[in-house]
Amino acid sequence: MKLRIFITKQLLFSLLCGLPCIAYSNNDERYYPFRKYSQKEGLSSYNIKKVIEDPYGFIWIATQSGLNRFDGRSFIVYDKSSPNPASRIVENDITDIVIDKQRNLAWVSSATGGLNAVDLSTSKVQISVPLTGRNLILTSDWILSMQLIGDDIWLATNNGLSVYNIRKNITTHQCIIPFRKMQMENFVINRLLRLNEELMVASVENFGLVFYSIVTKEIVYKYNLDKTGYNPGSMFDIVQNPKGGVFISTKNGLAKIMLDPKAGMNKIAIVYASDYLFLSGTKMSSIGFDKNGTLWFSNDAGLFIADKENRKVITVKSSRLAAEIDKENRITDIFFDNSDNVWLSSMQGVMVSANKISPFISYSSFNNGTLKINHTYGISPFSDGSPVYICTERGLYLSDRALKTASCFDKATAYYSSFFLNTKVPFFCTSGGLKILSNNKMADPSLFYPELKGIEKERFGAVINVDDSLIYLASYIDKGLWIWDHKKSSVTYLLPQDASDSNVTMQINSLYVDKAKNVWLTCNQAIFVCMQGKGLKRMTIHNNKDYKKHSLFFDMCEIRGGYMVASYGEGLLILDSEFNLKKQLTVLNGLSNNGVYNLYPVSDTMVIVSSNSGISRINTANYQVNTYTEEDGLVSNSLEFNFNPRSNPWPFLNSIYGFTIVEPRYFSTSQTIPKIYISEIKIAAEDNIRDIKDLDLLKVSISNTTIQTTVYFSGVNYSNPQRTVYQYRIKELHSKWIELGNNNFVQLVGLNPGRYHLQVKAANEDGVWSEPKELILTFLPKWYQTWWFKILVFFATAGIVYAFYRYRIAQIKKQHEIRKNIATDLHDDLGSTLNSVKVFTNLAISGVKQEESLQQIKENLTEATMSLRDMIWVLDDSLDTVDELVTRLKQFALPVAAASNMEAVIKADSEVNSIKLTKEEKRNLFLVCKEAINNSIKYSGATQINVNIKPAGKKIQVTITDNGKGFNVDEVKKGYGLKNMQYRAGQVKYKAVTSSEQGKGTVVDIKPV
C-alpha cells in the first residue's frame, strides 16, 4: 500500500524563502584539540570521502585512493594494486562504507569498480563484486552512496538506484529511474538515508528528495524543490539526530523531515527546523549531531556549533582548522563515533577531536595570519581601558582584549616583561632599560618618578607587585634586586650576604610572593627569601637520603604546607616548610620533561608546569601527572621561560612560535576506556613468518620451529592515542603487571613448551584502565620434548636400568657359581688330597711303610699346591687373557710331560693373545685342557702332545692332539674324565669333541657352540 504524503508546501516556501535572515554573532568561540591524519601518517589519500566506526571501535576511512582501517595509531591500507590478496580491492576511489553486523563485514563501494566486503575481525577482503561482472548489473558507471537493509544493499548511482542482494549475489532491482518524462540527463542520487522500517529517502541532485518504500522498493513520494522557487542545487547533506528527527542541510539553513505519528507514519512533511530558526540564511554544507543532539555544521567559513539553548552560533577554533580549512577546502563530512569524538573529512585529510572544549587557546599569528608572533616573553595583565601588550624578543605588539587583532608597536627592542602601576600606567622591562608608555610613546620613567633615577637603564626581567605599593624589580644580568615603594617615592637595593661567593650568581629567574607576603627569588645556584623587604636570606635544600647540591632554580610556589621548586634538568623538587626534600618528580614519574621552567599554581591541588617539551598538570594531593603537547592544542612543544608567569589570573605559556593561554576550568578527566584487542600475531620460524590477524582470536598454537613470537595489540582510544599506555603479564610467569609504556607489542622468545595465558590491558591519558584481554598461547614441543617421547625415554631408561640390574644379578650369580665351584674343588680335590696326606702321615708315624708313605705325602702336597695355584690364577683379574692361559698351560704341562718322557708343544696365534676371557671361561677351559693333557699322559703312550689355540670369531678354539696309540671312541665306555670335560665346556658355551683311531693318536677339539 502506498504511503499517503502530507506536505505543507506553502509553509515550506515561506520558511525557506520568506523569513528574514537572522544574523548571528561569531564572537563566541570554543577551542578544540584537533589532530590531523594525512598521508604523512600513513593515510592512503588526502581526499576523504567517508568516515565510519565498526562494532570493534575501529575507524574505516574512504578516500579517493584506497580504503583505510585506523586504530588511533596506525593504518591498514586496502588498494587494488596490493600484492597481498587480503588487502586487494576492485577499485581505489572509495565512495561509501556500510557495516554489516549480521555477517561481521564492512561493505565498501568504489566509484567505478564495484563492491568489496572486508571481514571486520581478520581485516581481510572476503568478497569482491566487480561493477562489470554478471552479478552486479548497473546501467551506470558511478556508485555514490549505499545503505544496507537485511540482505539488500541499496546503491545510489549517477543514473538511478539499484539493489544488490547479498544472499542471491545478483542485482534484484535495476535503475529505478522515475523521471524519464522530465527528460533529465542524469538521475544522480548523492545520499541515501533510512528513515525507519518503511521509508528510505534519497537526495537527488538538481531535483530534491525522493522517498522509497523499503518493502516494495518503489517510489512513494518525490518532492521537487523547484516548485517552491527554492534552488534545488543547494541541498548538501541528510543526517539523523540521535535525539530524533532527520535533517537536511541547505544553503539557507536547516530543514527537517517530519513523519506524522498520528497517521501511522503515513504522512511526510518537510518543514524548516523550528528549533534552529536563528540559523536561517546560514549556509550549511556538512552537518552532524553529537550524542547530546548538538548540531555541528560547516561551510566555506569554517566549523560551527549551534547552541540551541542560547540561540547563538559558536565558532569552533583550532590551529589545525585554521591551517587546513578555507573556502577552497571545506569540510565534506562530520561524523561522531561511539565515544562522541568528532571526525572531520576534507580534501586535506581527516581530523579528530574529543568532544570537549580544550583548555588551551593558542596564538601564533593575528590579522588572518598576516602578523606572526614569535619568541614571546610575556603578556600584560588585562587592565580596564588598556590594550593587551605582548612582549617578544623582537618587539612589542598591541592587541584588543579579545585577542582578535594585533598591531606592532616596536620592532627594534626586546621586551622582557610588563606591569601596571595603579592598574593604569604601563611599564615595560626592555633590553634598553625600564620604560613607561606615555602619550602612546615610550619614555624614561625617571621623568615621571624621580626616585627611579639611576636604575632606569638597568635590564630587568622578573617584576612583581606586592600590596599595590611595593614593586620588586629583578636584574636580568646578575646585579640583584631593587624594591620600589612608589607611594613613598623610594628605591631600596638588596644583595644577598653571601653574594661574594663565587658559586652564587644573582641572575634572578623569577619572583614569587607567598601567602605571608614574603618574596622568594629563584636564581641559578640559590634560592633567597626577602622577609617583608628587610633583607635577603639564602635557603638551603636538605636532602636527607643522598645530599646533592641542586641548581638552576627557575621558579617556585607554595603547595600544601610546603614548596614546589622547578630545578631545570632535575624536574620538580617537593619540599616541606623547613626546606627538606620530600620527593622529586621527573620523567620517570610521568613529567613531560626534566627541563622545567615555570610553575602556575591554579588551586590547592593543581599546578601547571611548563617545560621545553610541553606541559604537565600536577595533582598535589597524590602527585599524579598529566602531560599535554601540540596534539592537545599547545601552540608548540618548545616552550620558553616566562619572567612573570603569574602576572595574569590564568597561565600564559610562551614559546618560539607564539603563545598559549590556559583555561584550567576546561581540564577534565577522560573516562573513555580504551578498547583492547590482540590485533596481530607474527610467528617467525626458521624458514617463514606466519602472520595472524583476528580480533576474535582466543588461542593460537606456536609450532616447535618458531624462533620468535611477536604479539601486537590495539588500545583503541582516539581522544589521545599518543598517550595510551599498555601493561602485560603471562599468568604462568608473572605475578605482577609489566609496564610497556606506549609500546603496543610484546616479543616472546625462549619459552618452554606448554600453555600460557597472555593478558594485556590499556589505559587512557588519565590512567583509566581497560579490562584485560587474554590470549592462550600453546607452544608446541619438538619431537624430543613431546609426552610420548618422554614416556618412551622413561620406559627405555627403566628397561636399561632393569637390564643392568639383571646383568648385575647374572654376574653376581656367575661369581657365586665360580665361588661355589671353587669351594667344591677345594672340598673335593684339595680336601681329599689333604685327607690322604693325613692318612699317610699317620702311617709314617706308626712306622708302617714309612718310606712309601712319605713319598705319597710328597706327591699329594705337590698336587694340592698346583691345584691351589690354579685357583689363585683363576681369581686374579689381571690374568684374564688368552696369553695368560697359554702361560698357565705351559706351567702345568711342560713339567708333567717331561717327567713322563714326552714333549709338550703349546702355542697360540698372535691375534688371540689379547682376547679377554671371563673368569668362568678361563677356569673351565683350563680344567678341560688340563684333563685332556692328563688323559694323554696317562693312557696314550704318546711321545708328543700339541696344544694349538686359534681365534673362533670373538672367542677361541683349542685343539689338543697326541701321537699315541689311539682308541676306538665308540667302543670305549665314557668315563668320568670325558664326561667332566664335556660338562665343563658346556658351562661356558663350548663343546669338547674327542676323535681317535687305533694307531693314529687322539684329538680333543674345544670350540665355541
Short description:
By secondary structure, the chain is α+β, with helices and mostly antiparallel strands. It contains seven helices and 72 strands. It starts with 8 loop residues before the first helix and ends with a strand.
Which properties best describe this structure?
1009 residues, alpha+beta, Methylamine Dehydrogenase, Chain H, Immunoglobulin-like, Heat Shock Protein 90, 5-stranded mixed sheet, 7 helices, disordered N terminus
Describe the structure.
The chain has 1009 residues and is an alpha+beta fold. Among the domains are: 362-666, Methylamine Dehydrogenase, Chain H (7 Propeller); 675-785, Immunoglobulin-like (Sandwich); 878-1009, Heat Shock Protein 90 (2-Layer Sandwich). It is 15% helix and 40% strand. The chain is built from 7 helices and 72 strands. Helix 5 packs parallel to helix 6. It is elongated. Residues 1-26 and 228-233 have low confidence and may be disordered.
Secondary-structure blueprint of this entry?
Elements: H1 9-18, E1 29-31, E2 35-37, E3 48-53, E4 59-63, E5 66-70, E6 75-78, E7 94-100, E8 105-110, E9 114-119, E10 125-130, E11 143-149, E12 152-157, E13 160-165, E14 170-173, E15 189-194, E16 199-204, E17 208-213, E18 219-224, E19 237-240, E20 246-250, E21 253-259, E22 268-272, E23 286-289, E24 295-299, E25 302-307, E26 312-317, H2 319-324, E27 333-336, E28 342-346, E29 349-353, E30 360-363, E31 365-366, E32 371-372, E33 376-379, E34 388-392, E35 395-399, E36 406-410, E37 415-421, E38 425-430, E39 433-438, E40 441-443, E41 460-466, E42 470-475, E43 481-485, E44 490-494, E45 508-513, E46 519-523, E47 527-530, E48 536-539, E49 553-559, E50 562-567, E51 571-575, E52 581-585, E53 596-603, E54 606-611, E55 614-619, E56 624-628, E57 652-655, E58 658-662, E59 675-685, E60 689-692, E61 699-702, E62 706-716, E63 725-730, E64 738-741, E65 745-748, E66 754-763, E67 773-779, H3 787-846, H4 850-875, H5 882-899, E68 903-908, H6 919-940, E69 944-952, E70 955-962, H7 976-987, E71 990-996, E72 1002-1008
Parallel strand pairs: 1-26, 61-67, 68-69
Antiparallel strand pairs: 2-29, 3-4, 4-5, 5-6, 7-8, 8-9, 9-10, 11-12, 12-13, 13-14, 15-16, 16-17, 17-18, 19-20, 20-21, 21-22, 23-24, 24-25, 25-26, 27-28, 28-29, 30-58, 31-32, 33-34, 34-35, 35-36, 37-38, 38-39, 39-40, 41-42, 42-43, 43-44, 45-46, 46-47, 47-48, 49-50, 50-51, 51-52, 53-54, 54-55, ...
Helix pairs in contact: 3-4, 4-6, 5-6, 6-7
